[in-house]
Amino acid sequence: MARSAKKGPYVDEKLMKKVTALAHDDKTVIKTWARSSEIAPDMIGRIFGVHNGKDFIQVRVTEEMVGHRLGEFSPTKKFIRHGGKLAKEADRKAAQKK
Which residue has the higher pLDDT, 50 or 9? Predict the structure, then answer.
């Protein structure tokens, strides 16, 4: 369920302080744990280190990201691949071709 329009978008206060404190052309990484914070137009061009539970994943904010949450661009689960008999045979054939 979306946030009420009368409340406005949720942007973490500490995160917004960090963004406004830096000069616009400053390319330092802003580390944050505020995954639920929405991306505001003031954040365009910045680089954020969004915590995924283990590491900080660097996210460069573009115009298309405005309105989305920071956590959407920092996956918390690592997909390795689906296994099974068919996948093993395909890997074996690829290795033989090399």
Answer: 50
**Can you give the CATH number for the domain in which 51 is found?**
3.30.860.10
Torsion angle, alpha carbons of 49, 23, 39, 53, to 10: 10
Is residue 48 in some structural domain?
yes
d(CA 53, CA 76) in angstroms, rounded, equals 7
Q: Determine the structural domain holding residue 73 and report its residue range.
A: 13-97
Mean pLDDT on 3-16: 86
Asked whether residue 27 is domain-assigned, the answer is: yes
18-65 tens-digit pLDDT: 999 998 888 899 999 999 999 999 899 999 999 999 999 999 999 999
The count of domains in the chain is 1
38-55 burial code (b ≥16 CB/10 A, e <16): bbeeebeebebbbbbeee
The answer to whether position 2 is within a domain reads: no
- In the chain, the N- to C-terminal Cα span, in Å, equals 51
